[in-house]
Amino acid sequence: MSLNNSSNIFLDSVPSNTSRFQVNVINENHESSAAANDDTDPPHYEETSFGDEAQKRLRISFRPGNQECYDNFLQSGETAKTDSSFHAYDSHTKTYYLQTFGHNTMDAVPKIEYYRNTGSISGPKASRPSLLEIHEQLAKNVAVAPSSADRVANGDGIPGDEQAENKEDDQAGVVKFGWVKGVLVRCMLNIWGVMLFIRLSWIVGEAGIGLGVIIIGLSVVVTTLTGISMSAICTNGVVRGGGAYYLISRSLGPEFGGSIGLIFAFANAVAVAMYVVGFAETVVDLLKESDSMMVDPTNDIRIIGSITVVILLGISVAGMEWEAKAQVILLVILLIAIANFFIGTVIPSNNEKKSRGFFNYQASIFAENFGPRFTKGEGFFSVFAIFFPAATGILAGANISGDLEDPQDAIPRGTMLAIFITTVAYLGVAICVGACVVRDATGNVNDTIISGMNCNGSAACGLGYDFSRCRHEPCQYGLMNNFQVMSMVSGFGPLITAGIFSATLSSALASLVSAPKVFQALCKDNIYKALQFFAKGYGKNNEPLRGYILTFLIAMAFILIAELNTIAPIISNFFLASYALINFSCFHASYAKSPGWRPAYGIYNMWVSLFGAVLCCAVMFVINWWAAVITYVIEFFLYIYVTYKKPEVNWGSSTQALSYVSALDNALELTTVDDHVKNFRPQCIVLTGGPMTRPALLDITHAFTKNSGLCICCEVFVGPRKLCVKEMNSGMGKKQAWLIKNKIKAFYAAVAADCFRDGVRSLLQASGLGRMKPNTLVIGYKKNWRKAPLTEIENYVGIIHDAFDFEIGVVIVRISQGFDISQVLQVQEELERLEQERVALEATIKDNECEEGSGGIRGLFKKVGKLNITKTTPKNDGSINTIQSMHVGEFNQKLVEASTQFKKKQEKGTIDVWWLFDDGGLTLLIPYILTLRKKWKDCKLRIYVGGKINRIEEEKIAMASLLSKFRIKFADIHIIGDINIKPNKESWKVFEEMIEPYRLHESCKDLTTAEKLKRETPWKITDAELEAVKEKSYRQVRLNELLQEHSRAANLIVLSLPVARKGSISDLLYMAWLEILTKNLPPVLLVRGNHKNVLTFYS
């Protein structure tokens, strides 16, 4: 449906012939558009095509008379872009408004540039307007400067994106390959190895045509399933360089990718030596026949192999274009050699060839060779193990994925077609050779049938030859004995030798290119930091010259060894491990159900991929069980190493997706199970603010939640909503990253609120997920309550009331120095900034000295030296950095030391638990959990409870019995019988002096004055209130005396938190209670559970 194009829709300043436009998909043909312009009915609109960039372009057509504007917009057949020369609205004041579909808005239409990564070589990344920009600008209708308008309308992105554009320009001379030369040719050459020419005939002789076809088919099933899985992964996003490593690492993560990438690169490097030695052995055999040996067979192999690998290195270093040309030439030779074989099968055989077992196509030979005839020590799986390496090589194209024009299209198409073509060739050769050549032949032209001789049903006997003596003595010819059967059958034998040369050299060349490319991609990701040196590339194609040299050295080392029979099975298993992980990657990505898994290649199934992975693992053990074990051990070791190092990469792997799905499923499953007291664990909201600002509060909480309970570090941003939300969002990632870096198993959550209490109330209600909801609030003691504004005290006490209202336990932690070290952090940040500026200035001065001499600059340098800024020295234990020396005390050194006190291992001592009120057991459970931690394991529990003086022993026995039933170990139990006596006068005087500034003293004034004071200062402590709770006040003061007497030397005191009844106890009086209760003591935890059982002695 068209949009209304009436000109009165636009502002008056809009030219009358400018129209609004719609979005339609049209053809790109310029003439058709011009012809359409000649027709004025129906009217034309601006038309935009958002199809494939390579086929459909952005197109705009106007009403008649606007062809000039249209021609200016269409940029010579290239992708048209909305540049600054075109605007749907252009006022006479030269002010530009960003426009989409004719409306004044900053909204941008969908473009591919918005979805590119920064630094993408396929084009610049554009930055779409942020939601905040659209939200604010749309409301205010703010005019945008031309430069800003161009930036968003064109999708030019941030200024830094110019580097990406320059990088794109630098790619002009890069050599990129299509699917034929880049993938098909390489895969065919790698799959067609020497096995085709010198072992396939022996396999048919051992297994027969029937089982031989099954062996080939089983091998092809493995490679086809792997090819399908690889195709699915390749088409699920842009593929960069790195081949199998890139596919596996981006699918399963750096742990799997890093482990398989290293051994895969090494396997390719050693494979160079294997193929070159194979070539050298063939050359040495020819030298033997012509009696032209240089030294001896072993040294001749080393000499020829070394010369060959040097030549191959030269071809590779010359550039991918030269290497590709060499591969094409080798493929032509290989195809001629294969064709030569098929031609030879139809050329009539002569007597010499017949004596060697070749009789052209014979039904009797086909029938005789159809079944197996395994020799001693051979069987189906042993023969399969020998053949299977011939089917590998399907990753040859994927390994140079960075040099392909379109890896997403080239790798699936080229690989699958290569598998099909090579399979047909293998099957054709196997069937043909099985139908033409008998299993055993003497090679003696005189072994013909004499009249009257019994043929015993053999095919050769029926064709006039007697090879019966091969049953009793070894023969040199036939499928079972002669590895050169294809040369004998072919029309021209030397061409088969050329084919062998081509197969070995092409495979060696492909491996020599693959190993550095994969290794370079691995090093670029910096998974193994020691290998970063090899990440550097050279030239337009970013050639890994350092990787080439390393591969060359590895290949040379193994060529000089010249004994590869032992390592060959391991290398085959390395390749198979890669295949297994590619299949598993496809299965894993499908199983994770990530919305990002959308492969364009739809011919795959997750269960088939899993079957392919299992099949690859099984084949590894079939080929060589001990090599398979070694492969798994090496891979496991590298996996553990990478996991331990935790590389800082985020590739959106399916492992991440599956972790999310598993966590979600487990959380949902947890909601179906009712809570049970045996499974209770403290799940804490910790009001730390930024987690780095109160590390001690977080450390003590983490000590009893680590590996057992939920811990959420919470921060409340108070102030104007817009500023708070901006600050909150900008710091989320940084603060969670700080927790991860410091190995604290906790989450970070923040809210923006009008006041602190409202924010905490929101956190208490909304934090957590399902059963994983907080049940305990942990806050630091408000040390400065006597100097703080009244609203802060109301909020502080109010959140305690709110927690109890929500039936959440409360833990208040007090240490002598306090928790907040934000000022220290600010000083450190400022000094670090100054130090960086100083270093930069010194570097600039040195540069200027070199350029301008010493005149004038040295004086400036001396001034800089007088800044007297000292460096920050990081502590080895990973704790917060401290400044070693400064002119004045910028911060309290004791505060910094106190902030790390719970990070350290606690000295041998006690945790004194004053379990005065039964809150369900939380006051006892928290210290018990602490004693299970390494840092607190040397601290024993001492239990203090109130009791009657005349029943101390009975109550002590009763408490010991209860603790034993709870299975909680303790060092001692103390029954305190004198809690309720009055404190001494000095202690009570301290308390009275503490509350004196906050008392109303209404009893000393007349009734009218007293009522007036109550209205004006309702927060003050009245005489009536003080008298009503005098006994409770006595108890708090008395408890402090007892704590001073019994627990002064304790490592930690855990004490029942007194509860202030709402409406009865004023905030200031409650703070005075907490102050006098915990005054001049070691670290104190005031704990009050929600009065529901958290301990049980039932099983």
Automatic annotation (TrEMBL):
Keywords: Cell membrane, Chloride, Coiled coil, Glycoprotein, Ion transport, Membrane, Phosphoprotein, Potassium, Potassium transport, Sodium, Sodium transport, Symport, Transmembrane, Transmembrane helix, Transport. Residues 694-1099 form the SLC12A transporter C-terminal domain. One of its GO terms (biological process) is sodium ion homeostasis. GO terms for molecular function: sodium:potassium:chloride symporter activity. It comes from Cebus imitator (Panamanian white-faced capuchin). Residues 182-685 form the Amino acid permease/ SLC12A domain. This is Solute carrier family 12 member 1. Residues 31-53, 148-167 are annotated as: Disordered.
